[in-house]
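quick one, two chains, predict together pls
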Amino acid sequence: MTRRPNLAVVGATGAVGEVLLGLLSLRQDVWGEVRLVASPRSAGRTPVVRGESVEVLALTEEAFDGIDVAVFAVPDEISARWAPIAAAKGVVVVDDSAAFRIADDVPLVVPEVNAAALRIRPRGIVSSPASTTLAMIAAIGALHAEYGLAELVVASYQAASGEGRYGEAALREQTALVGGLDAGRQEIGRQTGDLRAVIADHGPFAAPLALNAVPWTGTLTDGGWSSEEVGIRDESRKILNLPALRVSATCVRIPVVRTHALAVHALFEREVTQEHAQEILRGAPGVVLYDDPAAGEFPTPNDVVGTDPVWVGRVRRALDQPAALDLFLCGDNLRKGAALNLLQIAELVAGELRPA
Amino acid sequence: MTRRPNLAVVGATGAVGEVLLGLLSLRQDVWGEVRLVASPRSAGRTPVVRGESVEVLALTEEAFDGIDVAVFAVPDEISARWAPIAAAKGVVVVDDSAAFRIADDVPLVVPEVNAAALRIRPRGIVSSPASTTLAMIAAIGALHAEYGLAELVVASYQAASGEGRYGEAALREQTALVGGLDAGRQEIGRQTGDLRAVIADHGPFAAPLALNAVPWTGTLTDGGWSSEEVGIRDESRKILNLPALRVSATCVRIPVVRTHALAVHALFEREVTQEHAQEILRGAPGVVLYDDPAAGEFPTPNDVVGTDPVWVGRVRRALDQPAALDLFLCGDNLRKGAALNLLQIAELVAGELRPA
């Protein structure tokens, strides 16, 4: 291919799509046409990409004519239906949904960890992990390469924008409501269930989220596990090529607009030290070590919003397990957790299509 | 003793003290005099206890004259200084601070778990655990009795009122600020560090807390561990009489006014099942099982505020460890996490002083 490859962004007007268009304007430009695709409802809008207004097309089979790579940032059921249609036209699909993540014949790729997996894609589809997995896996992958990972225990602190624009708007409305009430009702948040009385509409969350925490994301699977909790396990196993890795995750939504955080307990095959683990993380691609509690340095979600890497702090050797580390990680759920990882994969595919 | 014992509440005007006075009005009344004590700054106030206004006295040695039991809900350094003074006058001190929790000659008591430990108190001081430990230990203790506990991995979701009235007020101010700004600044929480620009005063927190999460509570100890993280380990070991228990905790403050939550991964000596674990928790004293995700039933901090028990939901057998459970727990940090546990201990002491 002598021309530059053409990219379609499917879901261009969503929360992830918006961040993706912004990244296309910021990163080295490897693309010919950038075509924007969305639901018929959003067709006709003209967001700016690479300095130019581009009209959004409705999602149809024809929208993929002449396209080489398509990134999909749409709900599972839209990906499940349309990714195979695009792939059948010879388009390489890079999909952000959960529809194909665990399929044996679809690679699940994090470029810093398993870029080589990208090359075998019998269905023409490449999958990108969930934003929770992406908030830790570059850091955990680097530690695994050195120490050999045996077990992960994960607790998440997930942002409202994990539920897209609807989730973000719901948290903003709830925050404005309790923040505004506060002057007159100093008791808000101090009485059993009073947030339920004040916040009638929970939005996409299972309970009021402002001034609260909701221990539920995803859908119910066997044994009381949520789909997102099982996803962290299955995705970590697949990306790290550790099919017997032991993983327990508890997923919790907290009142943060953007950026997921994770508390991780990681048990390895070999002994660790705090200093050596910090050194590995300092040198790991896609990872920033920010870890000096004496100086007040540890990542918080808001400090990480809008940045590319996974930020790691609170690195500690377990007090009672010489082969275990405890960590706190933050990753922007819309950026590395979605748009950036999609675009990194798409750029690798573009590189394949344009041999030197 | 034929008369009813006299109780002193030291720290009567603080956040824990306020809840304690409320409980004294609600619970079966076993006390003669209830004397209120606080810093000289708060002396002279007249809060209502058991339906009567009671004047607050300044903390002096004389304030303990004629007192049988004193509960201390004050900062560590005040307890460290004044608890021995009260004890030297024959008062049984029930202390909420961290000053004596790990001392070998001070029992650390949770009535549902280790009431018998109360009887041996060579210094005349009994300690109550941290609110984080209390948010789980009644439930974990019941499971330990059945399965034999080997390891705990804990991630906390801690409320602002863990930093007392100052912490609660700081979160309210921050919430009002971002909630009020929100109408005009829809980007708040979406730009790197913008909360730091808007929230100049973090209050007692290491970073802005509204719309954020701060992975730091307590003070720095060796190896990057915080005092609260080490406390959860040391207190769990002491209460459960398991000096070799492996514990890793990561403590995180989130924007919740009141009630701590914990995600806990608990490994046992024997195999577990979800149903049996739920049955144990359903019957455990001081514990409520609220666990039906299909019906949207799991505890959230706001639903638990103002209630006595520890609430447990999301009970799952670990997918890859037949002897491990994953749980989500909520406990009101001012009630069972502080005031209620203090009062339960004080009532047990009162019972000793008034043999049948």
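The first helix of chain A runs from residue 15 to 26.
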